[in-house]
Design goal:
CATH architecture: Sandwich
CATH topology: Jelly Rolls
Order of helices and strands: EHEEEEEEEEEEEEH
Radius of gyration: 16 Å
């Protein structure tokens, strides 16, 4: 099982950590498209099957895992990539704090899971975001469908495009269509 950490200290070697510290102060590349970045040797590193890039406006880490999977994390997010690397991408990610955005290409047969303290989200062919806070995890679907399971219970819901759910201990799972303001605030954390 291949496992790598992306959190303060990154869990990588000292040389790579020093490079990330240096990169934080350099000008990062802009988005050429929603998930495509123009990489240069000074802003890209490798993490197993994924290439890590640093983006700006707002500052975030972008993991490009083959042609089918992109993981974006706001600068302060605490997460780790987990699972065996299959077909050029990891099996999932564990998030303990902060917001991440997942883009799984719809024409690919990828099973990918995100585990938070409150929820488990499993997807295929979708774009969705999670915001993990101490008391709850918010899950929002921008494209496709996402199945969300409340940890420690049998509660499960399926979210469609434009829908979200707030998952917390002892709370029922209630699927809601998110308003434009809430969607804008979350997606702005990823420069969208």
């Amino acid at each position: 099982m291949t496992e790598a950490r992306i959190e303060p200290g990154f869990g990588l070697g000292r040389r790579t950590l020093d490079m990330f510290r240096i990169m934080r102060f350099k000008t990062a590349v802009g988005l050429a498209a929603l998930t495509l970045l123009s990489a240069t040797p000074t802003n890209a590193q490798s993490l197993g099957a994924c290439r890590v890039e640093i983006a700006a406006n707002p500052p975030r880490k972008v993991l490009l895992c083959g042609a089918a999977l992109t993981i974006e994390a706001e600068e302060e997010a605490r997460f780790r990539v987990r699972g065996k690397v299959a077909a050029g991408h990891p099996e999932g990610v564990s998030v303990s704090d902060g917001a991440i955005l997942i883009d799984v290409k719809p024409d690919r047969h990828i099973r990918f899971q995100v585990l938070t303290p409150h929820a488990l989200a499993a997807v295929r062919g979708t774009v969705y975001a999670l915001d993990v806070q101490q008391a709850e995890t918010a899950v929002f679907v921008a494209r496709g469908r996402v199945t969300v399971t409340q940890r420690g219970s049998r509660a499960i819901v399926t979210l469609e495009q434009g829908q979200g759910v707030d998952v917390g201990p002892g709370r029922p799972l209630e699927v809601k269509t998110w308003g434009a303001e809430r969607v804008s605030k979350l997606m702005a954390r990823f420069g969208r």
